[in-house]
Design goal:
Mean pLDDT: 92
Order of helices and strands: HHEHEHEHEEHEHEHEHEHEHEEEEH
Strand order of the largest sheet: 7-6-8-9-10-12-14-13
Structural class: alpha/beta
Low-confidence stretches: 21-25
Bound molecules: alpha-L-arabinofuranose
Radius of gyration: 27 Å
Distance between the termini: 83 Å
Number of strands: 14
């Protein structure tokens, strides 16, 4: 009887020891999770907002690139169009001691202080899409995005070639520009591209007003411009969402969006080439020409991070190659900045354009 209770005590002691040994030598659940995430590269991404289809495609590109399967932990913050929110997000990323900060800035200026803080914390900052205008370029590691002024020049040169080929008097062009968010690189470059061409070619650029890159604002601004100016024959919209809004306003005013300005149509020129409805409108001749702005930056930013991980130095500025789309075959090539650019004539299913972009 005594021997039996001794055996039970010994077994109990052994069990206790086994539990203690496990506590001492085996990692608990939290330690296991920490171990698993330790390998992941942590990227804090401050996205400026969700104002357009371009922006949604850009966010999706980042989310689908910086996945755990690819070795990343992505911390995503939506700035909701406010620079103050983006600055707050960057400060939080610094506190979290992320490995990289990726910033898609809403406007160009106002970043010096917070980028200095990131530099002091020795966290590399990659700027994506729009640029930052800072006093010291060493405040960011590198930038990946579009040449927005070139996009504007291409769209304007397309219009110039169109008028030449159709024999339209340049002075008879009465243009309004629905601009993007004021102070954003995409607005600055595209506005300059048009304004310079208007001066050079003798076009009547009657008004510039911001549509904030949104459909609602594009419609609102076009409604008011149509009331103010009765001779508009070209509307230059600084993105496709604004163009969709402007077309609604044109049609609501009983006018027609189209390339036949000699017959009273209003020609719509736009940027992006992401929104499927806008690409469909090119085929319908409601939008005459779109200068592409490519949003698929996720893999490009990842390539930069991989270089940095290998201890290499990426190019400070990487520009994406972009096309110009039209369904009208009047203009097939453009000369811009001494470079010949083929116009991509849309005929097929517009969703094919997405495939085109992935290959670049
Ligand atoms: O900065 C890129 C621009 O921002 C895109 O043209 C526009 O659609 C977006 O909102």
């Amino acid at each position: 009887m005594i021997r039996k209770s001794v055996i039970i005590i010994i077994i109990a002691l052994l069990c206790l020891m086994a539990v203690r040994c496990r506590m001492v030598f085996l990692p608990n659940q939290e330690e296991l999770i920490a171990e698993e995430t330790k390998e992941l590269i942590v990227v804090g991404f401050s996205q400026l907002g969700a104002e357009s289809d371009w922006r949604s495609a850009n966010t999706e590109s980042m989310r689908s690139t910086f996945t755990e399967e690819n070795g990343y932990q992505l911390i995503f913050e939506d700035g909701q169009q406010k620079q103050s929110n983006q600055i707050m997000a960057i400060r939080t990323f610094i506190q979290q001691d992320v490995d990289y900060i990726v910033l898609a800035p809403v406007t160009e200026t106002g970043w010096d202080t917070v980028l200095q803080e990131a530099k002091d914390a020795e966290i590399p900052v990659i700027i994506v899409d729009r640029m930052v205008n800072v006093s010291d370029d060493s405040l960011f590691t590198c930038w990946v995005g579009s040449d927005f002024e070139l996009e504007g020049k291409k769209a304007a040169e397309w219009l110039n070639q169109y008028t030449i080929k159709k024999g339209i008097d340049p002075a008879s062009l009465h243009i309004v520009n629905i601009q993007g968010t004021i102070g954003a690189s995409a607005q600055i470059g595209r506005t300059k591209g048009l304004a310079d061409a208007a001066r050079t070619n003798g076009w009547d650029l009657m008004a510039e007003a911001t549509g904030d890159f949104t459909q609602a604002k594009g419609k609102e601004v076009m409604e008011s411009l149509l009331k103010q100016y009765h001779n508009i024959n070209v509307v230059y919209c600084e993105n496709d969402n604004e163009a969709l809004g402007a077309i609604k306003a044109i049609e609501a005013a009983g006018k027609k969006a189209g390339s036949d300005i000699a017959r009273g149509e209003i020609m719509v020129i736009s940027f992006d080439g992401v929104n499927q409805e806008a690409l469909g409108y090119v085929l319908d001749d409601k939008i005459t020409c779109i200068a592409e702005c490519n949003p698929l930056h996720g893999p490009r930013v990842r390539a930069v991070i991989e270089l940095l991980e290998e201890g290499k130095t990426p190019d400070k500025f990487s520009y994406v190659n972009e096309k110009i789309f039209s369904a009208d075959e009047t203009v097939t090539t453009l000369e811009v900045d001494g470079i010949t650019c083929e116009v991509t004539i849309l005929k097929e299913n517009p969703s094919d354009r997405q495939e085109d972009r992935k290959e670049q």
